[in-house]
Amino acid sequence: MSEPSPRFWPIFFELYESLPRQGPGNRDCAAKAIALCHDLPPVAAVLDLGCGVGGQTLHLAELTSGNIVAMDSHAPNIDRLRATVAKRGLAERIRPVVGDMADPGLPPASFDLVWSEGALYNIGMDNALDICRRLLRIGGYLAFTDAVWREDDPPAEVKAGFEMDYPTMGQVPAILAAIEKHGFSLIGHFALPDKAWWTDFYTPMETGINKLRSKYADDDDALAVLAQLAQEPEMHRKYSEYYAYEFFVALRKE
Questions:
Q1: β-sheet bridge partners, residue 94
Q2: Helix (H, G, I), strand (E, B) or coil at 116
């Protein structure tokens, strides 16, 4: 596996910080997952782990009456979310914080709902499930999305596309087994529809890439990075039948 060029991460963050969200998902999917959380308290304590710039955090504020801690390790994401929260008058309900999912520094058993879209894999699924369980009260819910393979033997181009970011990516049964192993009871799961990849993620990503191509028109190294980033939505156009984002909702049993 080759290392990215020195220009990769600065341009990656320049692009991703500009997007409405940093991975697949939309309000409809969030609402479907929330609907599976049948017994949330009227004013639930909610933790959004790996919140990015807070696209789904804002959905949680609309779909629940809860108070939300939104955590991300990338400070510019949290700065942007704080500005959005202030602009929308949500400062009493949403508290954006810079923090590490692997060591969130939050009291155990203090949340009714732990939410994470496309982020738990960064610290390993077993480790993430253990941390989320400790943060939840008994009877609390965990709702998260994760990339999964739909086929046993995806084309080499697709497998290579995920290799740098998620080399341990598996299939749904493995995640269901991990959920059960870590003391959760599965409530339900569903695959995100294709529009959840495009409307708030890949379509604005491609628009952002085109803008950066104009900005870096005379910078061959930057253009090479942008060409690399553009491969992701193009791969989805060609090979989306081989992989998916799955939403899982589970209950902490005891």
A1: 68
A2: strand
Average pLDDT over residues 149-164: 91
Domains of the chain: 22-193+242-252 (3.40.50.150)
- Please, what is the average pLDDT of the chain? 96
Q: Residue 106: helix, strand or coil by DSSP?
A: coil
Strands (DSSP E) found in 22-178: 45-49, 67-72, 94-98, 111-117, 136-149
Report how far residue 206's alpha carbon sits from residue 204's, in angstroms, rounded to the nearest whole number: 5
Q: For 166-172, which contacts have Cβ atoms below 8 Å and span 24 or more sequence positions?
A: 166/121, 167/1, 168/121, 168/124, 169/121, 169/243, 172/148, 172/246
Q: d(Cα 229, Cα 22) in Å, to the nearest integer?
A: 13
| One-letter amino acid for residue 105 of the chain | G
DSSP 8-state secondary structure symbol assigned to residue 62: H
